[in-house]
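[Automated response] Your request has been received and processed.

Submitted sequence:
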Amino acid sequence: MTGAEPMTLGELKRRMQENRIRLWVAEGELRYAAPQGSMTAVLRSALGHHKAVLIGELTQAAPLLTAQPHARHEPYPMTDLQQAYWVGEHGGYAQSAIPCFFHHCRFDAIEPETVQVALHHLQRRHEALTARFLPSGEQVIPPPGENSCTLSVVDLRMSDPEEAASRLDALCESYPETLPSLENGPPLAATLVRLEGSDRLLIAFRLIAIDGPSLAMIFRDLLRYLFDDIAREEPPPSLSHRDYVLALQGAASAESIAYWDKTLPTLPGPPDLPATGETPLWSAFHRLAGKLDAERWQRLKSRAAEQGVTANAAMLALYAAALRPFATNPDFTLNVLANYRPFQHPELSLMTGNCSNTTLIDCTGTGAFADQARRLQALMAERLAHASVSGVSLIRRLQLAAGAETPAAPFVFTSGISSG
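Generated structure:
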């Protein structure tokens, strides 16, 4: 091919699909995600040549998202993932659990009034933190000032140090049971524990209401409200989570439906790990923590980049590799959680709520670890291009086909690590 003979649009699309290159439009610009080395100079030149047409096609295909501030306090449906959380919180699954994010913050000293005002500002700015989840299976954002979070205060400054430490541990263990009910309370709870020489803020959020990017915004603003002199309330953006959910209704593309109709029957089952044979109705989350210092983490990211993979892809491959020695079959399917905001709107990145989706990723034990990571990275790009069909809907299909109570995709990978 020469400069005088540009690649046809049809050929470009075929090559992009073969190379697992995903295109989308963000803020009016054409963006792409490609495996290392797959975006050649020829393909880049063809993208530039057909840029206007591709932007037009992608923009036309994208679901329409519009702000409807006049209706923001009316009930609206839950997303498929929120429905799954909701059923689980009501004990609808074997080993049900309450999905929440709990954080323990240490301060030298902070007044309860300061924290309560900060929580008020936080709920005003991030209205998802006032959401109620109704018995009808709908959710609703109440008007400002309703469903507020009331700070609990436990003063242990006069207690014996060992007793105070024991009480603090017990309070931490009490989450998520401390959270108000789905139907009546806000999806967060906060306790300020006053200790001799320091104070601790215990705060928990229901994950049915918010996602990872929302949590990042919430903690950023919480620190501002605690330590900056912000007297005025900051209203939420005009775009609401209700607008987002309504835009998702009927947004599954025919192409993605056909893709999953073909792909779903080919997926292996979940990791078949050893089990006790006992299946409790309710389960609890236990966090196992490990840390890499900055030098080792940078070295890991550099090694991953040398192999053409992101840190997220490397972590996904590591998770699969950690499960594989205990699995009967080295090939299995994982459930991967991802942020899903497929719309074009200037306020979308400012809106908080649960905008997560899941997709199914089949992992194979063949090949070197770097090859497995590259394959998973390319497969993630391919599957996310068809995320208009939710992962929860796919799991429902698998569950119905199996006709068993055993979860179809119980092993979930999620990561908040930047891919940069």
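Summary generated for your ticket: The two ends are 33 Å apart (CA to CA). The mean pLDDT is 88.
If you did not submit this request, please reply to this message.
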